[in-house]
Amino acid sequence: MTLQIQLIRHGRSALPFPARWITPAEFREWIALYNRTGIADESTPPAELVATVGDVAMVVCSDFPRSIESAARLVPNRQPRISPTFREVGRPLQGNWKLRLPLAVWDRFSVVLWNRNLVSGDESIHAARRRAQEATRELVSLAEESSRALFVGHGMINAMIGRELCRQGWQGPRRVDAAHWGISTFRKDS
User: What is the pTM of this model?
Assistant: First the structure.
């Protein structure tokens, strides 16, 4: 029997990027608001994606609204398993610098620094890796129970889970699809 785990990134958030340049403190505030915001009304999954995942028995998502709402649009007849273990990694910048930059620049900058363990934000990279390992163990267990598990998650945690699955011998893409509604499928013979 072949086990399957599918990772999908949530739909586009209802929270727009700020039009003006922001400070690191404002970036941190924006991330907090982003984590409390669902997906945009017009952000619908492609029909072929809905058809691909429509018969999945086990759906998992984080406890952030954009993950829960995306799961509901993908598989409306399934009650997802919701867990904070599957939240996006926490890596916003600390500090009260006066420098203002576009949100996308702060986002990239924070990722680079966080990946090099130079900032920890809400969660160090080491803590995030441990949590991704825990999330992966849970997804593997669910796939072993029902042969297939679907996680409707977030960009960076999906990437970390994908790397962990590959380390465990699962076959799948080297890089997960980070686009909104992007899907990455991993398989392993049991």
Answer: 0.95
